[in-house]
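Troubleshooting log. The previous structure file for this entry was overwritten by mistake, so regenerating from the original sequence record. Sequence copied from the archived sheet and checked twice against the printout by T.R.
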Amino acid sequence: METDIPKEYREDFFRTVVDTVNDPVTLVGKDFKILYVNKMVSKIYGSIVGQLCYETLFGFEEPCEDCLMLDVLKDGKPKKKIGKFELPNGRIVWAEANAAPFKNAEGEIIGVIDTLRDITEQKEARDLLQEALAHLNAELSEAADYVKSLLPPPIDTGPVRTDWRFVPSASLGGDSFGYHWLDEDHFAIYLVDVSGHGVGAALLSVSVINALRSHTLPKTDFHDPQQVLHALNINFQAEQHNDMFFTIWYGVYKKSSRNIIYGSGGHPPALLFSDSFSEKVHIAQLRTPNFVIGGSPDATYEKKLHKLDGPARLYIFSDGVYDITKEDGSIWGLEGFLEFMQQQADKTHLNLDRLFSYVQQVNQTDSFEDDFTILEVVLE
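Regenerated output below.
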């Protein structure tokens, strides 16, 4: 490349530019002798021109085993590495070393230009960040284990059987659920999804589940979903819980009458499949048009009743089951999920493992951006 700088000034120009660089810059010949150093190198090492680089800079008797200069001379391409370096004063620093070929007017490589940038502060900051991240991940993992420990075991026998799949996201969402007999005739089922991620969302979710499981909401009949949703909204306003709200599906199955009374607050519909095993299985979507819990103290809630005609399967889930980005960038969505569930129901018994495997294929990875939570309740 031609330059407008007169030939007699080019060396001075080169020295001036290189000396303004705050990083050490060294020009080393092919024989490993130092040909030139900038002011920063002189400040650290003194006058070292003419000395062997590996002896003066690193205290070795022969070229370094991982010498960047040798790599550059092999293929003529710039090289870079990050490692520890000891300065003459004994200080150990982390540095980014860069080496590039230095050519004469004929394009022949006659040496290598080395630069060394001190990245000790950046490295220490990065290490602290990684340590904090590891600590956070450990907390999230511990919180996820705690949430899992509170989940009820599957019920294998009886008029009501249950199964579920709960896979926390890497950042831990706010999903949790539960079910239990209120008395000999009424079986309560509920699933909560707190907004946001992290330990805070998980703790709020656990608080809600504990309130439902322990019946600690004052003046509330837990047989009545309308009362339950209203009481939750009064006691868990977002402004009192770090601006976090939650969605919920709460239902009560009455064994003697085979009715389900239910209410939902901003939650995806529960899916009720009739177990008639006809050619086309009917799916009922159980949802009420209620507001999320904690969003407004003035919100009102309603309930609905669904009569079962025979054996049925009820599926309650969070949006993490279907709110998944596909390979083409589109969202799988509730409609895609419903289509899959219908196809599986028409073919054979629905299977949670088959569903989870399929969702993993759609997701293209084993980790999810949100909690994957689905609950199956078999009603004989």
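The domain at 158-379 is CATH 3.60.40.10 (Phosphatase 2c; domain 1). Archived copy saved in two places this time.
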